[in-house]
Amino acid sequence: MAELFRLTIDEARAALARRELSSVDLTRAVLARIEATEPRVQSFITISADHALAQAHIADERLARGDAPALCGIPLAIKDIILTQGIRSTAGSKILDNFVPPYNATVTQKLLDAGAVCVGKANCDEFAMGSSTENSAHAVTRNPWNLQRVPGGSSGGSASAVAAGQCLGALGTDTGGSIRQPAACCGVVGIKPTYGRVSRYGVVAYASSLDQVGPLGKTVADCAHILNAIAGHDSRDSTSVNRPVPDFHAALTGNLKGLRLGLPKEYFVEGMQPEVGEAVRRAVRHLESLGATVDQISLPHTEYAIPAYYLIATAEASSNLSRYDGIKYGFRGKGDALLDMYRRTRAEGFGAEVKRRIMLGTYALSTGYYDAYYLKAQKVRTLIRNDFLKVFEHCHAIVSPTAPTTAFPIGAKTSDPLQMYLEDIFTVSLNLAGLPGLSLPCGFDHSGMPIGLQIVGRPFDEETILNLACAYEQSTEWHTREPQLS
Fold first, then answer.
1. pLDDT > 80? residue 486
2. Alpha-carbon span 196 to 313, nearest angstrom
3. Which residues contact 246 (CB under 8 A, 6 or more apart)?
4. Quick one: average pLDDT of 290-307?
5. How far apart are the first and last CA of the chain?
6. CA of 184: how far to CAs of 141, 151, 263, 280, 291, in Å?
7. Residue 2 has pLDDT above 80, yes or no
8. What does the alpha-carbon distance between residue 401 and residue 378 come to, in Å, rounded to a whole number?
9. Catalytic residue numbers, as ranges
10. pLDDT digits (tens, 9 = 90+) for 323-340
11. Which tens digit of pLDDT belongs to each residue from 205-259?
12. ∠ CA 449-453-455 to the nearest 5 degrees?
């Protein structure tokens, strides 16, 4: 058997079921991998080795009894913006540095109910604000394919942990592409489900109308297993949608006959890295060879997605982050008077990017500017969603690049926030429209960095994009390559 940390979830499930290995053995192998690689990659804020081994022992007992749910004994990582009872959850921020939640997020509890083992909390941009994981208050995570490059963001810790073999799968959150863009940068698979498909209860809020939890994994099938575990209605989340949840893994038939795909002309923009465009066009031709038909389509309001997104997201962030005042929980700055304490708490607790977005959002919501900025952005959001719905009248899915470039060098864009924001140019539209999207590897550039293919689906049609991605994955070899971390 291969080194245990190299197993996919499917392979580990089969080996555990056959009793060829135990969850304790598998978890120890993953923890040893973390110990060997973490000083260079820095995927984690907190490593929960004791919790993980205790959960692995319980998993082995369930396996011995024949009472093994879907993810029983599988070591996973959870993004630090998702609450985990008894394990520090900082959202990548100094202001929550000492926060140990007294309860689990719904997605955490569902993973535990499915028998998963949590090996640690993955690093992320502070409050999920960033595209490179350079905005974390704790560390800069590095891309396992090239330690001088970023892993993408804000779920960069989750993506790098999967790529480096530090876990078999992970949870991330996606507000403007924060699962798909790091998945593309790190050469793994990541899915943003339809808004409302997965509960946000217990997830630290950045922009409530955009945030969504989703899985990252080595393969499409692994992501389907995790999505099966976390999807479903939650009465504690008013935005959770009460509709049946299909078996996403059973949907992976590989049959693409009759599928009509759209290729948006607006997603091949000037300035995009040529190798990215070439790899995506090659992937499209491959999908045609598998039985799909592809038409060029237009999403005419695409150019307005980035400004609309950053107005809506920052406005919601300015509201959500007003709760961090040093009184209720988290870091407290020193001050002689109450107002002085508030000021010092927020000045010392928040990082530069969070302050920038709070100020942008507060300005957009202020008297005299609400109609000109926030309200207009919401109207643009409707136009963008209508663009997609019109295309989906005759297409089953849309294919595009996930990001305009491969992973860039650490520090290359930190002094230019607008350039950083453009990394999400192909992903933010889906969040504005509430649609499901997936990224999977479709090639490498000349320096050996992964390229991502994005597949966009109709609302609540995750089965189609998963099946499409699985058919492509299983007939290519990109997903079999691994970064060279000794």
1. no
2. 17
3. 462, 463
4. 96
5. 18
6. 15, 9, 18, 12, 25
7. no
8. 25
9. 79, 154, 178
10. 999 998 889 999 889 999
11. 999 999 999 999 999 999 999 999 999 999 999 999 999 999 999 999 999 999 9
12. 160
DSSP label at residue 166: S
Where does residue 67 rank: exposed (0-12), middle (13-18), buried (19+ CB within 10 A)? exposed
DSSP 194: P
- How far are the Cα atoms of 106, 115, 154, 370 from residue 317, in angstroms, in the given order? 22, 34, 15, 15
pLDDT digits (tens, 9 = 90+) for 57-80: 999 999 999 989 999 999 999 999
The single residue listed with the structure tokens 């208050």 is 137
- Distance CA(124)–CA(20), nearest Å, equals 35
What whole-number distance in Å separates Cα of residue 249 and Cα of residue 218? 14
Q: What's phi and psi for 346, nearest 5 deg? A: -75, -35
Q: Which one-letter DSSP state was computed for residue 296?
A: E
Please tell me the total number of residues recorded for the chain in this structure: 486
Query: Which among 136, 152, 174 is positioned nearest to 427, based on CA atoms?
Result: 174
DSSP string, 7-39: --HHHHHHHHHTTSS-HHHHHHHHHHHHHHHHH
Residue 202: how many CB atoms within 10 A of its CB?
Answer: 22
- Could you report the per-residue pLDDT of 402-417, keeping only the tens digit for each? 999 999 999 999 888 8
